Amino acid sequence: MQQKPRFVYWFLLPSTLTAFGLICAMLAILQYSVRSYIPGSLEVGEFTLANFHALLRPLYASAFLETVVLSLYTAIFTLLIGYPLAYAMIRAQRAWCRSLILIVAITPLFLGEVVRTYSWIIVLGSNGFLNSVLMGLGIIERPLRLMFTQLGVVIALVHVTLPIMVLMLAAGLSHIDRAYERAAISLGAGPVRAFMTVTLPLSMPGIIAGTMTSFAWTFSAFATPQLIGGGRVNTISTMVYQLGFSSLNLPFAASLSVAGLVLTMVVLWLAKRLTNSLERIGGH
């Protein structure tokens, strides 16, 4: 058996250090979550589980629910927009057309999240680009209220997560053997039926991977809900910020973080169970 060169193990060092740092940070958060809060101090008190009991209050329960709903809406709308883009990018005949779609799709990745969010503030504001265009065309008489609403946050989050969705869908679509589609068409199926009965089921692994990644990414989003929501759209991440940095209640912020992490894992596990049958359809 050929022995691997020793220098290969040095390549594992960065990931090992990153994993070690992440584990230490998670243990610190877990330790803070079971300590009592001392008002006016950064020091924490004795062991307690009262922080987790306080999460049952309606204010925090609604933040959990709103985070799940936002993540779900974002994942669905990102999929609906991203699938045609990914399909066109993979199936375009000309190379420049594929390159153009790829550049347009992944450009948001090269912008910082804060820059993207401020751009959306300019677009979605009462006197912003979108309302100015709609009022100029006579479609609406008064500006639509998009800032500080759930709709505005979802629009901005879809833009943030779209590149990841397109890349994952494109990876799934590129592995589909075109011979299956040609066989379906040769047997009398039209283009739409061949797509619905062959291409769409075979691309299911990419759809599931992209949707779950978008959901998990949105679940931890902070800058966009904070700036677009303006404090009126409460998510777990914005509540952690308010408790930890405004109220300096680090133990309660830590317990909220732990509960958010557990909820994310539970939701993704349930989604995985529900999509197992769909994923088997796309096994090829």
Q: Which characteristics define this entry?
A:
globular, two-stranded antiparallel ribbon, 13 helices, mainly alpha, 284 residues
Your description of this structure?
It is built from 13 helices and two strands; from the N terminus they run αββαααααααααααα. The protein is mostly helical and 284 residues long. Strands 1-2 form a two-stranded antiparallel sheet. A hairpin with a 6-residue loop joins strand 1 (35-37) and strand 2. 29% of the residues are buried. The model has no long low-confidence stretch (mean pLDDT 86).
- Poorly predicted tracts of residues: none
Radius of gyration: 23 Å
Structural class: mainly alpha
- The helix count comes to 13
End-to-end C-alpha gap: 32 Å
Mean pLDDT: 86
Helix content: over 70%
Strand-residue proportion = under 5%
* Arrangement of strands in the largest sheet: 1-2
Secondary-structure element sequence? HEEHHHHHHHHHHHH
Number of strands: 2
Globular, elongated, flat, extended or rod-shaped: what is the shape? globular
Largest pleated sheet:
2 strands, antiparallel
Précis, in short:
With 284 residues, the chain is mostly helical.
Secondary structure blueprint with pairings:
Elements: H1 13-33, E1 35-37, E2 44-47, H2 50-54, H3 58-91, H4 95-106, H5 113-124, H6 129-136, H7 150-174, H8 178-186, H9 191-202, H10 204-219, H11 223-229, H12 236-246, H13 250-281
Antiparallel strand pairs: 1-2
